[in-house]
Amino acid sequence: MTANLGTVDRALRAILGLLLVAAPFVSGFALFASTAATVVSVVVGIVLLATSAMRFCPLYRVLGIQTCKI
């Protein structure tokens, strides 16, 4: 896997991922009273954190996007 995420993209993904994983448990929003919304939020957050950690996004590869400088 060739890296295709730049530093800013990685940082934004990591921050958003952490927020999505934590939100259902600490926010108290009525939206997260639903189990489905909680699961979706946590799964999307984990995917964002994983892509940030690996510096690789499969969707970017398919679309031909590369935000890192080679």
UniProtKB/TrEMBL annotation:
Domain Inner membrane protein YgaP-like transmembrane: from-to ranges: 1-69
Taxonomic lineage: Bacteria, Pseudomonadati, Pseudomonadota, Alphaproteobacteria, Rhodobacterales
Any Pfam family the entry gives: YgaP-like_TM
Protein name from the UniProt record: SPW repeat-containing protein
Transmembrane regions listed in the UniProt entry: 12-33, 39-57
Keyword annotations from UniProtKB, A to Z: Membrane, Transmembrane, Transmembrane helix
Provenance organism: Jannaschia pohangensis
InterPro entries named in the record: YgaP-like_TM
